[in-house]
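This part of the workshop introduces the protein records we will be handling. Getting from the letters to the tokens is the skill we practise here. An example says more than a description, so a record of this kind follows:
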Amino acid sequence: MAGSADRPLGTWDEGALEFAGLSRVRLDALLQELLARVDEIMDSQERLRALLDAVVGIGTDLDLTSTLDRIVTAACELAGSRYGALGVVGHDGKRLVRFITHGVTEEEIAAIGPYPEGHGILGLLIEYPEPIRLTDLAEHPSSFGFPPNHPPMKSFLGVPIRTRDHAFGNLYLTEKAGGAAFTEDDERTVSALAAAAGVVIDNARLYADTERRRRWHEVTAEITQLMLGEFDPEDALQLIARRAREVSGSAVGALMLVEDNELVIVAVDGPPAFQAHLGRHLPSDLPIIGDALAGDQQIVVEELAELIKELGGVTDAPELESLGRAIIAPLPPGTRSTGGLLVVAAERGALHEVTVGADLVRMFAIQATLALERVQAQQDRSTLAVLEDRDRIARDLHDLVIQRLFATGLQLQGMHRMVRPDVQERIGRAVNDIDTTIRDLRAAIFELHHQPDQSSLRADVQALVADYAEPLGFRPQLTCTGPLDSAVPTAVRPQILAAIRESLSNVVRHAQATEVAVEVAVTAHEVIARVADNGIGMDSTTTNRQSGLRNLRERAEALGGAVQLSANDPHGTVLELRAPLTASAD
């Protein structure tokens, strides 16, 4: 106590004051640190709240295009970035096929030029899908620089977006507010947003695919309903091309059918500029086209415009340069269809709904084949109805009309000797008219039995004789007897026509005839073609012209027949060709 009493009072006060000063400094530091921690917590909470708001915002609807726009906007707001973009990676995983921007006006985009395809820093993020954060873009060795009219950009943050195990695209952010660099917190926040965006994008694509399939079922019912009744094939094929384009989200849809080893575009749906290609013929042996026709699987083309250029395609159609990803689906073989292709193509840079609906495109190709088969069935049914009606008419003509005419002719002939000579002459003319009518009816019956889709010798002879009416100055008399179209061999038909043509040509040039009779008759064993005229006859010059018939004689002999040139009574010339009904092409 004494010692304490002896200590000077000033010494104790100075130590306490010094301790109190040090405690106050440390307390201030602690308070500042505490306030900083509180600010960080508040900032983190604010950032977390903003992130949650952004995640909720990007999933407000399932339209893929608007979803991508909202993702870019949300990323820029979270990281405080002036410019942002979302690049969609193509299915080849090597380049960008679409670029959604934020912070750049339409005028600036037009001045910059085409969107990037994934070179430089953008390509680095495609090749190595890991977050990239740079203070200065220009200092990175992979930097390619900027094109003219591009706004200046320094700081950079790139984050990949994945949907399941697939790299959908990348988020690119530049120019953080205040000229600062992007922080690690920015990277974590944007990466979290990208993870949520991948789920939202996947849901949007699944929803779009579900909607397409629902729409496809509606369209299938529509097309099926059309084909259940009578329909125009052109309208049906046009409807299939239109619905295939709509359901696949494409810009153009086209149907092509094989005709004479060529592809003919029979239906086109899309912008008016593409309608000019309707009816265009394309080679069917082009590399990609030939592969599609030969196989049973559709072929996906990444850039249809580039393929057309490589194949040396249409050069007078600038609208084709706008076509990007396309699907070429072969029409499955039918019982009578000749084959073809269904093509749908999207615009360059468009989202790939066309790829998701690839199986739907093939289903539309099946619909096209069904439509063609249905049309053929309708035509066959109509043809069968016509043929049945013709058979009925032919039977009625043969069993009723001809028999009655024949009986009437017999009755007239029985009365011939019972009447005066002048009446006999009139009866004779009437009988001859009846015989002519019977021959005409028999010819009509044979015509009725002829099927429209088969070649007709009778029709060919009639057309050939009609062609010589003008050069002769009169129409030759034509008589056709027997089943020309069913009994005459195919190898003999050209010789029949050649003999008639050769004879009529000689009559025009040399005979000076006023009447010509052409007769083609089928007997039990042979076919006979005879051309008789009443011209100047077979004089010495006509005999010399027989060398022109040498080829005709040789061909007739090859068929086992013969050609004979003789004089007509009382004057003129007769050319006659005979050929057996058993003649063959050999």
